[in-house]
Request: fold
Amino acid sequence: MKLAQIIILLGGICMFNVGCTKKSETNITYPQVEKQNVIDTYFGVEVADPYRWLEDDTTQAVANWVAAENEITQNYLGKIQFRDKLKQRLTDIVNYEKIGTPFKKHGKYYFFKNDGLQNQSVLYVKETIDGEASVLLDPNTLSEDGTVALSGISFSNSGKYLAYIISRSGSDWNEIYVIDLSTRQHTADHIKWAKFTGASWLGDGFYYSAYDAPEKGKEYSSVNEHNKIYYHKIGDDQSKDKLAYQNLEYPKRFYRASVDDDEKVLFITESGAGLGNRLFMQVLNKVGAPIIEIASDYEYEYVPVEVIDNTIYFYTNYNAPKYKLAKADINAPEIETWKDVVAESENVLTDVNFIAGQMILIYDKDASEHAYVYSTDGQLQNEIKLPTLGSVGFSGDKDDKEIFYSFSSFTFPSTIYKYDIDNNVSELYIAPKVKFNSSDFITEQVFYESKDGTKIPMFLTYKKGLKLDGANPVYLYGYGGFNASLNPGFSTMRIPFLENGGIYAQANLRGGGEYGEAWHIAGTKMQKQNVFDDFIAAAEYLVAKKYTNSSKIAIAGGSNGGLLVGACVNQRPELFRVALPMVGVMDMLRYHKFTIGWNWASDYGTSEDSREMFEYLYAYSPLHNIKNDGTAYPAILVTTADHDDRVVPAHSFKYAAALQAANTGNAPKLIRIETKAGHGAGKPISKTIQEYTDLYSFVMYNLDMKPAF
Reply:
């Protein structure tokens, strides 16, 4: 949908087939949206879907509704007096030099840098670590408005080429281009309709994953099927690319290829049918070697992380819910032969790096990351001391002793250190200069009980000297799904809220990966209510401990977290004052019918699985459980984007329309629909600043905050 072209077509709010109705105290006029007689039957139960027509975002009727809704929202936000000053403060804070962790390839050093307000970070190269840097690739030159973003890069093992992957307007669709590193000129190579892919090199070519070109007009909504792996040779047109792997038996699965740096083994993963993946491999230096399956149980993850001589190392949760590192011989790689290198421990193994002839393993301990050095035979050498509770990421080559890592936390901007592995010493390499005083703030970790007595960790960040008087504004964030962990991290966007007395709370709910696969499973399918209970209990804890009260709590979450917010608002509307369901999965009965939604069935189940599963989903689906009896709901600002082909805008469209039509009190129920943007990745700085200006303006205004800007 090209909303950027149609949003300006409507000059008024009530036009075309849209009538008007007035909400008295808010003084907001919402579109009275047409309700159609659409009914689906699930196991004998009839379910109305009156806003089904909003799923077709290519029609003029939907375009009219979108334009009207955006106008209403911008009119509301435009009346918030401090909005412009908040935007200026956010702009000032964001405007600092941001440098990524250096990494070495073929004797040269590379890093990403953003001068401050550049929409996209730029890739630089230099001959020596202290030498002069020059631009290798500037994504800002690929579009005038910064909406073309870099999704990934991959250097050929020969050092001759760099493949880079882009997305346009935030879509999951990718294109791949190639740069000749000797001339820094683009080759003629151009790959289209790739998705969820890397570029894994073998000789002068690479493997990538793609779909057939979608039907015109349905690029961002139709179901993605028949994912395939191709091999592209440099200089060839894409039409000549060799089909390397497909499985016609399973159209709704993902396939991805990877080749080790020494080009000994081709690995193929198949995912999308369970919690994990199948794993195949082919020995490349044996003529005619077949592709063999080495792990087949979809309930576990099998990730090859390194090949050294004839040994393959695997990261897996097979018989290890908190993950372990295993190995096998290249000539007998089947899972039955795997041997533990580093066995499962009490904490969750989240990453493995082969650097300087040793291994650096990262573990999650109570949702904070810790790093340790191991020998390649699995012997612990030492722990790497990190500045505080936070998140860490390493760069380095398995045969090179130069090691860098970045570290960040809630009040600790991403800072780069150089690490001496022989002496276990970290040296500050680059520290950013952010325009705020981090020493004015503090982070604490608390543990609270959920409804069933389970202990849940939560991070709280706020100004030092906070009074526990029950009157502090809170921004409570959660996710709780897909084995994803919420570790401490820095965001400039939170700073004005914190500076003005707000508390940022981040709850580590079940469904995530903070405590391993059991923690994840406890928040899936017919245990999904645990996630909502955990989030509700977080708010109740903050009230009970007098951090805040229910009139001062804003809740927020994106994607699966948008589902979380929508469900919790329906279940406990009186507990929150503001809600931000962002790019959320709001229709739990039909989510699997769009793009790659089918892939989420391992966490959610689907309405087609069984009557029991249907009834469970129907009972919490945000769209289907909005109260209509006068129960007062919080102020709600729904957000989505026109190119979101991960969680299609239809979810938010139908949810917002249903909210506005229901009798849920007088607080505003608005939707903000971004143009030329997607699910969130790659969004230019200019759009990010404006989005968070709107979000925090809405939050702070409806929490009755009086910010000093």
